Amino acid sequence: MDIVVSGIRSTGKLHLGNYFGAIRNFVRMQRENKCFFFIADYHSLTTHPKPDDLHGNIKQVLAEFLACGIDPEVATVFIQSDIPEVPELYLLLNMNAYVGELQRTTSFKEKVRKQPDNVNAGLLTYPVLMAADIIIHKATKVPVGKDQEQHLEMTRRFARRFNTMYGVNYFPEPDAYNFGEKLIKIPGLDGSGKMGKSDDNGIYLSDSPEEIRKKVMKAVTDAGPTVPNQKMSVPIKNLFTIMSVVSDPATVKYYKEKYATCEIRYGEMKKQLAEDIIKFVTPIRERIIQISSDTKYLAKVVAEGAEKARASASATLRDVKEIIGYRKWI
Ligand code: TYM
Predict the structure, then answer these.
(1) What is the pTM of this model?
(2) What is the atom index within ligand 1 of the atom nearest the CA of 194?
(3) Which sequence positions are flagged as catalytic?
(4) Per residue in 255-272, pLDDT tens?
């Protein structure tokens, strides 16, 4: 049995990328493994949410987690800031993380480029906090999307470095996990990159049918193929990638053939795609509405989750401090 840890930032509502990149795997993994799924609300502070929004965002993501099928009776579901052992391990790991390697991280370099006015130290040490989240439960598997691959590699490096530094074999080196398949990246509707919370290019699990239709019909396309079997442009490839996760294979095949023979009508394809997304999202959206109105239930889930997560985290932290050389004063 594996120990599985994975988290989602509480930066905004969950989108199809979060679902197909990570959450779908959580749901599959929870029955066979010891799973810890949490809401990374400390990580969300790098974007400076307003105090009035922070709690609402956490509550929203929690309800969405549960609406997707994560079962708090089976997995441990908790909020990162309820586990004080995590920031303590983060502090300890920071002593063995080097500024140079953190500055070279792709996600950090991207933030420096995209938001030069807010290059805070939390962004620089983001991978260290993520490593603490994971190794504090001595995880062996981490279901994530492709964008988190490098962070996982750094987690392994920090775990290995701790073991080497203190001559122990304490932390396992966790692997990114997607049931043997390649990690995936769901693209956005804007014709490039990935679907992201901060890029406003996505379909949210809480979007209404009208919103979904509007967004999909506005998705970027191109002028259409002019020769048979023409190489697809990135925006068209993106639409097919989204279609491949929500539509049935026969539908994808049909439109691929239409593309290959230059008979495709993007408007028609988008209509189909919108309806398939709606079919997929609607039951989840209905559960989100239902669950988010039950505040008592949500409070119970996180209280029980915090207790279980703290039991696991405090045992690790005790060992780690002992290994580092902290002793009782007797
Ligand atoms: P976050 O909140 O950006 O994303 C949560 C999960 O969704 C996946 N994901 C995607 N997968 C495929 N295509 C996309 N377009 C897409 N967008 C997001 C992410 O890969 C991720 O699995 N650093 C993490 C949160 C975190 C964490 C952890 C994860 C904090 N501590 C410990 C795992 C283990 C993050 O920002 O995820």
Answers:
(1) 0.96
(2) 15
(3) 111, 194, 197
(4) 999 999 999 999 999 999
